């Protein structure tokens, strides 16, 4: 059995945890395109350490949502991709990638809600929670750093499937820290 076989999606991954993998691969592809300009699925796979089929699938999905497009070909069968021209300049890269990430997170959460009854019994719960705290900007940054440090021991498992316990599954870990803006009298924000 190869490492790629161990990384192949199973039923739970396909139904409930797929968004985490999609998010990571798609974000990595967008980052790579921002860095190098154009890339084929095979080149992306080599640089990112995943299969060319997985990269090809996610490049097509990103194209479907308007984030990437096919680049002009120089002959042959190679199919190069680049950031879509209309998205390459209208927003800063961080904002575009943030919008995509939030959309994928929301899509994954909705998929989980719709399909959780298909997951094995031991996975049919979630640990969603939220909290309100009064923080300074520095404190908010410290909270974010604390969360990142708490998750750090598990980060390498995405790239190193053999480091995962046998019963480990991809779990979406989403934290959004943002200040609440006051409501204006007309219903908008000030």
Automatic annotation (TrEMBL):
Positions in coiled-coil regions: none
Gene3D superfamilies: Winged helix-like DNA-binding domain superfamily/Winged helix DNA-binding domain (1.10.10.10)
Family matches, as InterPro entries: ArsR-like_HTH (IPR011991), WH-like_DNA-bd_sf (IPR036388), WH_DNA-bd_sf (IPR036390)
Pfam families in the record: HTH_20
Domain of life: Bacteria
Name of this protein: ArsR family transcriptional regulator
Organism name: Streptomyces eurocidicus
